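Data deposition worksheet. Section B asks for the primary sequence of the deposited chain exactly as it was used as input, without tags or linkers unless they were present during the calculation. Section C holds the resulting structure in token form. Section D is free text for depositor observations; keep each observation to a single sentence. Incomplete worksheets are returned to the depositor.
Section A, Depositor: J.P.
Section B:
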Amino acid sequence: MARPTTITQDRILTAARTVFLKQGINATTKEIAQTAGIAEGSIFYKFGTKENLFRVAMEVPPIPEWVEELELLVGTGDPRTNLVHIAVELIRFSQQMIPLFMVVYGDNPGAPMREVSPGKRYALQSREKLARYLQKEQRLGRLGD
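Section C:
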């Protein structure tokens, strides 16, 4: 197959979506490059890492705003209202992430993954920030054990 003179980001993203939807996160960049009709190095030139390619191709949302705003909630407002707000935002974010986790695990959920899923990093960061928020509110006496 002749190499295209211009390798567009859209061409790579279209191929990546196709391959990721079929094979999950364990799809290789070699398979994506073959689908796009490009050299594998072009993927890394344009996206840096396979994880970044996955994030862009599958439109993984950024760390949610509510996670970044947890520090601002410490000691302010009504704790019950704050917790309800956090719970609602967590549900919304989960609704976005569940379809992505389905893609990550594909048709073989028991198979070991060669890489850490992009969503795992988000989950760990979110959990750590939420735990810190709750601990700070407890130290202020605004939440019980």
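Section D:
Residues 52 and 118 are 9 Å apart (CA to CA).
Confidence is low (pLDDT under 50) at residues 111-116.
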